[in-house]
UniProtKB/TrEMBL annotation:
Pfam families: HTH_18, PAS_4. NCBIfam families: sensory_box. This is Transcriptional regulator. Residues 141-239 form the HTH araC/xylS-type domain. Gene3D superfamilies: Homeodomain-like, PAS domain. It comes from the Bacteria. One of its GO terms (molecular function) is DNA-binding transcription factor activity. Keywords: DNA-binding, Transcription, Transcription regulation. InterPro entries: AraC_XylS_family_regulators, Homeodomain-like_sf, HTH_AraC, PAS, PAS-like_dom_sf, PAS_4, Tscrpt_reg_AraC-type_HTH.
């Protein structure tokens, strides 16, 4: 960290790290204008298979993640460092253990008193899937089941609300309360998961997989897949072929 950055930092990073170290379902980080890590929590270290912050501080995502995934994170960082705010970005994160998990990512630029951007701060919070067996969830469960069986169809919010037997507004409120995401994000999550599975287990073309998973525009599929996973469908397939090989 250079002297200018050190002077500009007004937030108590050690205090933030301590708080987020007690949040195993949340990744926390602060980066400078080059996208280098200035501060991280233990959750991020664990998921990268690292033990000490010093192993990560000063490095960029491209230095610690697989190339295609790291580039996706770096591109996202540059967008935020240009002044954009990223909120409620649904992402599928791949871990050092080989596992994967869905999260909501939020990133905002950090500025000094003159409005100059000196870095960014962000979190990625895991999305835990709730127990849907209770009667209180019966209505939402019907909509979720409909998504899981008919995700390849051009579903609308009205279709899902009809399946649940409730209004669109009530469905949106209940989905948000139970899952922490919107109904559309839940549908997108299901489609991306299915596309990921097909990319890993079949030789189907990207266009075929897009159609099979409810994406009726291949370019839109590629764009949404990269936004969620951090790499294009072809990069994801190549990444897993390398991992499995």
């Amino acid at each position: 960290m250079d002297a200018r950055t050190a002077r500009l930092i007004q937030i108590p990073l050690p205090a933030l790290e301590t708080i987020f170290d007690r949040s195993p379902d949340t990744v926390f980080f602060v980066k400078d204008t080059e996208g280098r890590y200035l501060s991280v929590n233990q959750t991020l270290l664990d998921r990268l298979g690292l033990r000490y912050p010093q192993e990560l501080i000063g490095k960029t995502p491209t230095e610690v993640f697989p190339p295609s995934l790291g580039m996706g994170f770096a591109d996202q960082d540059q967008l935020v460092l240009s002044g954009e705010t990223l909120l409620d970005q649904l992402e599928l994160h791949l871990y050092a253990s080989g596992g994967a998990g869905w999260c909501l990512t939020h990133k905002v630029p950090l500025t000094d008193d003159a409005g100059n951007i000196w870095g960014m701060i962000g979190i990625s919070k895991d999305l835990g899937m709730p127990d849907m067996t209770g009667s209180v969830y019966a209505e939402v469960a019907r909509a979720v089941q409909f998504i899981q069986t008919d995700y390849m169809q051009p579903l609308t919010l009205q279709d899902l609300a009809d399946a649940a037997g409730i209004t669109i507004n009530k469905l949106e409120r209940q989905i948000r309360r139970i899952f922490g995401i919107t109904t559309y994000q839940l549908l997108l999550q299901t489609r991306i998961e299915q596309a990921s599975r097909l990319l890993k287990t079949t030789r189907d073309s990207t266009a075929q997989i897009a159609l099979a998973c409810g994406f009726y525009d291949q370019s839109a599929f590629s764009k949404q897949f990269k936004a969620a996973v951090g790499m294009t469908p072809s990069q994801y397939r190549a990444f897993h072929a390398l991992q499995d090989g």
